[in-house]
Automatic annotation (TrEMBL):
It comes from the Bacteria. Coiled coil: none annotated. Residues 4-157 form the FAD-dependent urate hydroxylase HpyO/Asp monooxygenase CreE-like FAD/NAD(P)-binding domain. It comes from Gordonia namibiensis NBRC 108229. It holds the Pfam family NAD_binding_9. This is FAD-dependent urate hydroxylase HpyO/Asp monooxygenase CreE-like FAD/NAD(P)-binding domain-containing protein. PANTHER family: BLR0577 PROTEIN (PTHR40254:SF1).
C-alpha cells in the first residue's frame, strides 16, 4: 500500500510517525510505502527550521510531545539532551530548532521500529497536480515526476507569511525580505547594521526583532501593523488551564463571546490571572466554532480573531522581557498604521504611512498568511479544488472533510486526507502541534483502517 504525503512539516512528519507506530504495533499490518514530497529539505517545516537559539517555542515543552498520550516525552528528551534541568524542566520554552531535532529523532526511531513494514522515501520537489486514477491518486511534481499512490495526505500547512499588506509589487526589491522563514533569508539583513521596518507585530515579528537587535548594537527596528498590538506573554510559572462547561453558552457569536469574557474574568478573579481561563477555552474552541453559522464565523474572523490570537498564541516570558527592554531603550518601536506607499531610494526603501514618510535600510515581512486557501496560489491546492476533488467552506478557511477525509465537490469521501491548517474552516483551532499531533494520530489510523477496509 502506498501513501503519498505532500508536505514534510510538523503535520506531514507526524502522520508518518504515527503510521510507523501503528504498523510496528501490528504483526498482521500490510507493509506500507510512504512517499513524502516537499521542496524544502527540512523535516519539521519552515516554522521549526530556524537555527537561532533565541527563537523559542510558543507552547510550553509539556505541550509539544509527538504523542498526545505521552505528555512529558519532549520534556524528558530535553532533559536527556542536557539543555534543561532542575526546576526549569517542568515549565519551559525550548528553542524551536531543538523541537525539530526531537521530531526527526522520534520519526527515525519509529521508522526503524517498523522495520520492513514501512519504507519511507523523500522526494524534494513541489507537488503541482493531483488526479484520481481508479481508486487511488496520481501526484505530479514540478519537475514532472509522477507518483502514484493509494492514498494522499495533504499536509501543506499555510505559508508562514502573506503579502496582502503591500501597496505595490515588491518582489524585485533586494531590500525587501518577503519571507523571513526561508533558509538564510535574514542573512543579508543581519550582515548590515541598517534600520529595519518589520511589517506585522505578532510572534514572527518578535522572533525577527530579537535576531535583528542582537546582530547590531546601533540598529533600530520599527514594527507596524494596523492595530499595533503585540502578542501577550506566557506566565513565568505554570498556571494550568480551567476548561469551562460550555453547555449553556448558546450558539450565536454574541452569546459565546459574552460567555468567554465572563469565564475569563471569573478565573482572573479567582486565580489572579486570566491565562488559565483562555487556555481552558482552547479545548472547547472546535466545538464552539461548530455552533456558529457562516455569518458569525465571518464576523469572528474579521473583527475578533485578532483579539483572540494575541491572548491565545503568546510569547515566551523571556522573549517578552527582551521586547520590553528593547522598547524601553528605544531600539524597538511598535506602532499602528497603514502603509500606503513604498519607494526604492539609494539608502533603502521609503515607506509612507498617512502623512509620515521614513526610510529604512530593509523591510522584513512578518504578516500573517492569506486567510483564503483558494487564493494562496499553492498549485497542489488549486489542482484539487479545480478538479472538484475538494471544496472549501464559504470563507475559504480550509477544506471540507469528514474527520480529516476530504470530501469532493459532490460531498463524497475520496482518497485524500488532510490535517492542520487546512481544517481551519471546520475547527478554527487547528494550526499548532497540540492539535496537529492528535489529528495525525487519528488520521494515520483512518488511513490504514480505510486501506484495510477496501482490500
Ligand atoms: C514562526 C512560527 C513559529 C511557530 N511556533 C510554534 C510553536 O512554538 N508551537 C506550535 O505548536 N506551533 C507553532 N507554530 C505553528 C506552526 O505553523 C505549526 O505548529 C506547524 O508548523 C504546522 O505544521 P504544518 O506541517 O501544518 O505546516 P508547515 O510547517 O508550514 O509545513 C508545510 C510543509 O508543506 C510544504 N508544502 C507546501 N506546499 C507544498 C506543495 N505544493 N508541494 C510539496 N510540499 C508543499 C511546505 O514546504 C512545508 O514544508 C509556529 C508557526 C510559525 C510560522
Amino acid at each position: 500500500m502506498r501513501i503519498v504525503v505532500v508536505g514534510a512539516g510538523a503535520a506531514g512528519s507526524l502522520v508518518v510517525f504515527h503510521l510507523a507506530r501503528l504498523v510496528a504495533a501490528d504483526d498482521r499490518a500490510e507493509p506500507l510505502e510512504v512517499v513524502v514530497v516537499d521542496p524544502i529539505d527540512q523535516v519539521a517545516g519552515p516554522a521549526f527550521g530556524t537555527t537561532d537559539p533565541a527563537h523559542l517555542l510558543n507552547v510550553p515543552a509539556s505541550g509539544m510531545s509527538v504523542d498526545p498520550d505521552e505528555r512529558f516525552d519532549f520534556v524528558d528528551w530535553c532533559r536527556a539532551e542536557g539543555f534543561v534541568g532542575g526546576d526549569e524542566a517542568h515549565y519551559f520554552f525550548a528553542p524551536r530548532a531543538q523541537w525539530a531535532r526531537y521530531l526527526r529523532t522520534r520519526l527515525a526511531e519509529a521508522c526503524e521500529r517498523a522495520g520492513g513494514r514501512l519504507s519511507a522515501r523523500f522526494v524534494r520537489d513541489g507537488a503541482v497536480g493531483v488526479a484520481v486514477v481508479g481508486a487511488g491518486v496520481r501526484v505530479t511534481t514540478a519537475d514532472g515526476t509522477v507518483l502514484d499512490g493509494d492514498r494522499l495526505v495533504l499536509a501543506t500547512g499555510l505559508p508562514g507569511v502573506g503579502n496582502g499588506w503591500a501597496p505595490c509589487d515588491l518582489s524585485d526589491q533586494p531590500r525587501y525580505i518577503a519571507n523571513p522563514w526561508l533558509p538564510d533569508a535574514l542573512e543579508p539583513v543581519l550582515a548590515d547594521d541598517g534600520d529595519v521596518l518589520v511589517i506585522g507585530t505578532g510572534l514572527t515579528m518578535v522572533d525577527v526583532a530579537i535576531s535583528l537587535l542582537k546582530s547590531g548594537d546601533t540598529r533600530r527596528v520599527e514594527a507596524i501593523s494596523r492595530g499595533g498590538r503585540l502578542p501577550r506573554r506566557h506566565a513565568d510559572t505554570y498556571l494550568g488551564e480551567v476548561v469551562p462547561d460550555t453547555s449553556t453558552w448558546g450558539d450565536s457569536l454574541d452569546e459565546i463571546r459574552a460567555a468567554v469574557a465572563t469565564h475569563v474574568a471569573r478565573i482572573e478573579r479567582l486565580l489572579g490571572n486570566w491565562r488559565p481561563g483562555v487556555d481552558g477555552v482552547r479545548y472547547r474552541v472546535a466545538e464552539l466554532w461548530g455552533r456558529l453559522d457562516e455569518a458569525d464565523r465571518g464576523t469572528f474572523v474579521r473583527e475578533l480573531a485578532g483579539d483572540w490570537l494575541v491572548r491565545r498564541h503568546r510569547m515566551p516570558p523571556s522573549s517578552g522581557r527582551l521586547v520590553d527592554e528593547a522598547r524601553r531603550s528605544g531600539r524597538l518601536v511598535v506602532r499602528a498604521g497603514r502603509i500606503t506607499g513604498v519607494d526604492a531610494v539609494p539608502a533603502g526603501l521609503t515607506v509612507t504611512t498617512g502623512d509620515d514618510e521614513r526610510t529604512y535600510a530593509w523591510i522584513v515581512n512578518c504578516t500573517g498568511p492569506q486567510p483564503d486557501v483558494r487564493k494562496l496560489g499553492n498549485p497542489v491546492l488549486d489542482s484539487v479544488l479545480d478538479a472538484g476533488l475538494a471544496t472549501t467552506d464559504p470563507l475559504g478557511l480550509g477544506l471540507i472533510t469528514d474527520d480529516g477525509r476530504v470530501l469532493d465537490a459532490d460531498g463524497r469521501p475520496g482518497p485524500i486526507w488532510t490535517l492542520g491548517s487546512l481544517r481551519r474552516g471546520e475547527l478554527w483551532e487547528t494550526t499548532a502541534v497540540p492539535e496537529i499531533r492528535s489529528q495525525a494520530e487519528e488520521l494515520a489510523a483512518s488511513l490504514i483502517g480505510d486501506v484495510d477496509g477496501h482490500r
